[in-house]
Structures are given as structure tokens and as C-alpha cells.
């Protein structure tokens, strides 16, 4: 069995979640780095990681890793590779380059040299070359340079993996699907336990939670770049997809609740859940978060509130945060609340004591996932409430 080297980028802060996902899928030598996870495995692992990882942004197949000194070395390394054994020149390509501490002057020039090397190699062997398509390429090629080492990857995913093919409408400032799934994993929420997002926007947490509850592979409704590779093993792929389908649970109502202040935004969430086939299993309601009641005696509240720069105005938020804290104290005892925010003022103004603060990045934006254990009688730390799965629990309508 041939083992290949892969790298899976992910939102920064979620590397440990991705390490355990990949280990569970059977990947070998799994090692977290800043911004992603390196692993080894055969094509089966690569296909499964694309199909089943909820947290990876892409699965990149490493095709070269060598030391370099200048742009000439980059060209030679890229040109020496058997590109024509991997895909046909009728496919379009796009090259992306990222670097840390790279001494070369222009990354645009490096990008151009890699593209030239690939095209020259194709022309030499086949007489024709792939064209470049920067918008919707068939094959993405990623170069990564540090001070001395140049690594080249073929992207086996194509579109980024957070594009599940489910969310049709995006509301305002939606969170990426893989970040939402990673946050749910960090909270320790388990299927069957009540989950509420009271500022649900387009419903990303709910969509991810519904898929997790029903054990739906996140990639089951989309295509991948590896299907265009010459090495593509269609029979293996069909077997893996069928196996994932067989593990899906029946579509039954779940204790998943979402609300939002605005009817048009809630309509987006509704459209997204309907398009995914989840409208009957998730309960949605238009409501002000400051006026809701808990839909169950215990559960997980997971949300990302509006953030000054992008949606509201900072002054309004300074008034909103203490009210949110009061509401949680009064109406959510027995619950664990997880608030994902980029606003450093939220933890100061909410007037609750966070039991955990996890740094995470939403793109380049530094954020925190704040954990608040809501206990009866304010924030006194009492025995943790046992939140065992209650699969027969009926969803309760939100009270105003
Ligand atoms: C950052 S967005 C959430 C995005 C969401 N996680 C997604 O992926 O689409 C914050 C949401 O809070 C909602 N919101 C703002 N104030 C609210 C309030 N008082 N009660 C309920 N929802 C509110 C906004 O309408 C917006 O949809």
C-alpha cells in the first residue's frame, strides 16, 4: 500500500479537533501545525478525509518538498514532476502560493514560474498545455515556501470543504461551516442533547448540528477535484460513499432550536434548512434573544452575536452584552452557554465569569470561544448537571 503525505489546512485554533478527526479516519503520523494538520495515508484516507472531515478546509496531496535558494530552483522542482501522469491537459489549473519567512522578492513571480513549469512539462510530453482559470479551475496547485523549503501540493478537494453545498442564503456575517462544526466539537455537545442558537443568522450552527445528529457525511452532496485525477479509483469512492450513506440515521426531529431577531434573516435560515431537508427536524422562531426562555431544562447554547464593525454599532453592543448576561443568568440555569466573538469587550461587559476561553481565528480575525456554565443562583459553581442524551425529548416551543 503506497502512503502519501497530505496537509489539511483548517481554521486556526481547531488543529486539535482536526487531529482527532483524522486519527479516527485512520490517518497515520498525524501532526498538528499552526493552521493545519499533516498526515500520511493512502487514497482511501484522502477520499474519506474529503468526504467526512467536518473541520478541514482542504485536503492537499504533497507532490514535492525540497530545499530551494531561488526562483530557478522552484521552476526545476515543479518541472521535474510527472504532471501528465496525474491529470490531462484539457483540465484548467490555478496556482496559489503562500509563504512564511521566504527570502524571494515576489510571490507573484514564484506563482508564474510554477505555472510555467507545469505547462512546459505538459507541452513537452503531450504537445498541449492546460489553460489557467482563476475562478473555477479543475485543478488547484498550492505552493508553500518557508525560509529554505519549497513544498508543492495538488488540491484533492477543489472547492473548499466548508462549501458543503447546503447553505443557499447567507444572512449577515455567516460563520464558515467548518468553523461552526469545530466550535460544536469544542463545546462537547453531543447529538440528542438540546442545542439552541438564539442569534442563528443563516443557521450555520444548526445545519452542522443537524448533520452531526444524523451522522451525515459533510461532503456527501458535492464533488471533489480528486474525481478528475487519472489515478481516481471510482469503485473505491462509490464503496466509501455507500458506507457513509449506510451510517446515516433516519430523519427524526432533534432537540435543535434556532431564533433570530429579524424575520428576513430567519427566512434565510429556514430556506437553508429546507434545502438540506432539515426543516422538519429543527425548530425555528423569530425572537429577541433578550426575551426568550430556555426550550429545555438543560442544554447547550452556542451562538455568535453581532459584532460591532460588521453589523451593529459598538455603543449598542455595550448596552446589549450585560442584558445578554442577565438573561442567561435568569433563564438558562442548568445550561452551558458558548459565545463565539471577536469583540474583546464582550467578556468584560457580559458580567459573567467564563470557565474557559479558547482562542480561535475566523479567517484573520482573532476570536474567543467563551464558556459560561449557568448554574442556579447566579454564577456559584455547583455540581455539574448531568446532561445525558434524551432521545425521546420533544422540542418545546420558545416562550416569549
Ligand atoms: C454574526 S450574526 C450570526 C451569524 C450566524 N452564526 C450565521 O452563520 O449565519 C449575528 C446574528 O444575530 C442576530 N441578532 C442581532 N441582535 C439580535 C437580538 N437582539 N436577538 C436575536 N438575534 C439578534 C442578527 O440578526 C444576526 O443574524
TrEMBL record:
UniProt KW keywords: Methyltransferase, RNA-binding, Transferase
UniProt-listed InterPro entries: DNA_methylase_N6_adenine_CS, RlmKL-like_Mtase, RlmKL-like_Mtase_CS, RlmL_1st, SAM-dependent_MTases_sf, THUMP_dom
Molecular functions (GO terms): RNA binding; rRNA (guanine-N2-)-methyltransferase activity; rRNA (guanine-N7-)-methyltransferase activity
Record has Heme as a keyword: no
Keyword Transferase: yes
Domain THUMP span(s) in chain numbering: 45-156
Pfam families for the chain: RlmL_1st, THUMP, UPF0020
PROSITE patterns cross-referenced by the UniProt entry: N6_MTASE, THUMP, UPF0020
Name of this protein: RNA methyltransferase
Organism: Nitrosospira lacus
